[in-house]
Amino acid sequence: MAASKTDSPGPNTTSLQANLDLHRMPRRTLLHRFVHWSVNISLAVITLGFFRFFFPRVLFEPPTKFTIGTPDEFQTGTVSTKYQKEHRIWVAKTDELIYVLLARCTHLGCTPRWLESENKFKCPCHGSGFTREGVNFEGPAPRPLERLGLTVQADGRIEVDKGKVFRKERGQWEKKDSFVSLG
Ligand code: FES
Questions:
Q1: Residue 159 DSSP SS3
Q2: 141 and 101 share one domain
Q3: Are 45 and 84 in the same domain?
Q4: Which of the listed residues 88, 102, 110 should we mutate to test ligand 1's pocket, taking the one with most ligand atoms within 8 A of CB?
Q5: Which of 12, 14, 83, 120 has the fewest C-beta atoms lying within 10 Å of its C-beta?
Q6: Which residues surround ligand 1 with Cβ inside 6 Å?
Q7: pTM, whole model, 2 decimals?
Q8: Which is higher by pLDDT, 57 or 64?
Q9: Region 130-146 average pLDDT
Q10: Does residue 71 sit in the same domain as residue 16?
Q11: Chain-wide mean pLDDT for the chain?
Q12: Could you tell me the pLDDT band of residue 24, with boundaries at 50, 70 and 90?
């Protein structure tokens, strides 16, 4: 009678085996799922990378061209700061011409201020000074401010092109696109 107890698994042994199976199965399933998702994620990343190749990143920058009104809208003998905030430019008008200066210091790129009472542009960063025409005369700025390309449109309004830069030290302030002649 004792032999029958040891030879055939009793109800306790069977339930122990079932318990072990229950514990083993989820682990196997878990591993299987892990491998499955790893492969899927890798494939998804590779596929995304593949399609990104056909859609290169595009940087949307503000347009370089904009209009600032007609010459009559600017007062002779003044420097207008009207577009400084929006476009970082100053518009200067003399008896003979209109020119537009980029409001960027040629030392390290700070934005100078137009000081009407002192008739000059003054950079707050390291003290460079520029004449009304944009020529550097004090401080560390190594060269004059830059003038921007101008054209008068059919309706009489002036168009500024920030993509066209004219540098005095290169003799470019003589070029006709660097100013609007009022003569
Ligand atoms: S950035 Fe203007 S003086 Fe240095």
A1: strand
A2: yes
A3: no
A4: 110
A5: 12
A6: 105, 107-110, 123, 125-128, 139-141
A7: 0.69
A8: 64
A9: 98
A10: no
A11: 87
A12: low
DSSP states of 26-88 as a string? Answer: HHHHHHHHHHHHHHHHHHHHHHHHHHHTTS--------SEEE---GGGS-TTEEE-TTHHHHS
For residue 87, what is the domain's CATH number? 2.102.10.10
On whether residue 59 sits in a domain, the answer given is no
SS3 10: coil
Q: Same structural domain for residues 45 and 115?
A: no
Please check whether residue 57 lies inside any domain of the structure: no
| pLDDT given for residue 36 in this prediction | 84
Residues 96-131 have pLDDT tens digits of 999 999 999 999 999 999 999 999 999 999 999 999
CA–CA separation, 106 and 129 (whole Å): 10
pLDDT at 113: 98
**Domain for residue 69, yes or no?**
yes
Number of domains in the chain: 2
Determine which residue's CA is closest to atom 4 belonging to ligand 1: 126
39: domain range?
2-52
Given this model, what pLDDT does residue 12 score?
Answer: 59
Q: Could you tell me if 95 and 25 lie in one domain?
A: no
Residue closest by Cα to atom 1 of ligand 1: 108
